[in-house]
Amino acid sequence: MSKRQRVLIRNARLCDGTGAPPVDADLAVEGERISAIGSLSGDAEVEIDAQGLALAPGFIDVHTHDDFAAVVYPEMAFKVQGGVTTCVVGNCGMGAAPYHQASRMARAFHPNQELPEWQGYSGYLGWLDAHRPSVNIGALVGHGTLRAAVMGGEAREPSGDELDAMKGLLDEGLAAGALGLSTGLIYEPGRHAKTDEIVELARELSQCGGLYTTHMRNEGPGLLDSVDEAIEIGERAGVPVQISHHKASGRESWGQVTESLERIAAAQARGVSVHADQYPYTAGSTVLAAIAQNDGFGGSGGVGKVDPADVVISSTENHSEWHGRSIADFVSEWELAAPQAAERVLAEEPLATIIMHSMSEDDVQTVMRHPSTMIGSDGIPSMDGNPHPRLYGSFARVLGRYSRELGIFPMEEAVHRMTGFPARVFGLAGRGELTEGAFADLVLFDPEEIIDRGTYEAPHATPAGIQHVFVNGGHVVRDGEHTGERSGAALRRA
């Protein structure tokens, strides 16, 4: 990390993260923090004329799987060049500790990579303190990782001793500063947990202000029941709820988001703190094993019913020639039904990841308009394959396509969904708003040019229109290029 220089950004259009209309002003940075905002005089080592540009707090990506990416790729160019200054990791029940189970899960995203070892969440966050990445990292404790550490893959309820052991691991993470607990209820082994088990664990959060985030049990035909379960867990445990990547998956489920949003609004009206995040695309991405385990081609499980032509291999450990091929290709080539073709792929590549085209554009826009929704990329950082373009472009896409082109909401509201709103919900003190004394996480972008550029065929593309990014006052992106600065921090719950 280089020595901080005084920075003065002049003539910017400030979107302060609160949702208030933009104002024209200058902004100064001293060290890690914003020192002044207004009509400023004086000199600085770094001066930027921001005429025609918007200045916002750095974007907060509340739903990432970058736990190990921040270790393997500490410059995090795929995020920070897209304006992201903070990543929340540990989503979908997949956490960074205990290390043995976490590193096994990480192999799906980082095949053939060597990973350092740490003890618990204190060790993980400490490792980031000592080897700073270019973005800030806040961690959730992953329920699936805890369950695997205590129970392996057992498809049963935990004993009292096993539940206590999971609580002990959770409490270690919370004491280390983790932001909350996440579940992945379509994944092994979390999908075997019943509601009562999750409530008991979530109650541990109520003592420290943590939140409960969930990849729900069903995002297809059972979407509404799953929303009800998530809200019930929050109410019984007395903790805030964050619904991950809110959507309706599978054509037969399209349109259900109207009612799922109504259920969120009704819960909020009776005092439940419940919100959601969303990525701005009609395709998702996950591990192929989850499609097989949830009967994705039959439609009886938590991912809805998907067509084999809409499930495309994005990364594998040893078969790069399969990248970009659909399950329908293998159905034809091997003369097998879709479930059997998928199982044959998994027999050779058990950690294969896929892109799944399963959502409606109307639903995406309906969810985005709702005031309960913030933005999270949910990108899988499988850099040697063809990851979903959301890994790079989610935030630029919201600003460029959905705000500027489609008018879903004005720019200042889009910025609020990416900054002040998630900072408040996730307890990220001193971040998410442009105020004097706040940490200098900043993104300077051209509101007329910002847009995502990655495609499903060529996803490795940084967005257009993002010119400068500062993380804790460090100038990480200059004129659209990564400077090599690594000024991110391990964030701990206040």
Protein architecture, described:
The chain is α/β, with parallel strands linked by helices and 494 residues long. The chain has 16 helices and 22 strands. Strands 1, 2, 3, 4, 5, 18, 19, 20 and 21 form a nine-stranded mixed sheet that branches. α5 crosses α6. The two termini are 24 Å apart. The mean pLDDT is 96.
Mean pLDDT across residues: 96
Question: What proportion of the residues form beta strands (DSSP E)?
Answer: 15-25%
Largest sheet: 9 strands, mixed
Helix run count: 16
Gyration radius from CA atoms, angstroms: 22 Å
Helix % is 25-40%
Question: Uncertain runs with pLDDT below 50, 5 residues or more?
Answer: none
Structural class by SSE content: alpha/beta
Number-wise, the strands total 22
Query: What characteristic shape results from the CA principal axes?
Result: globular
N-to-C CA distance: 24 Å
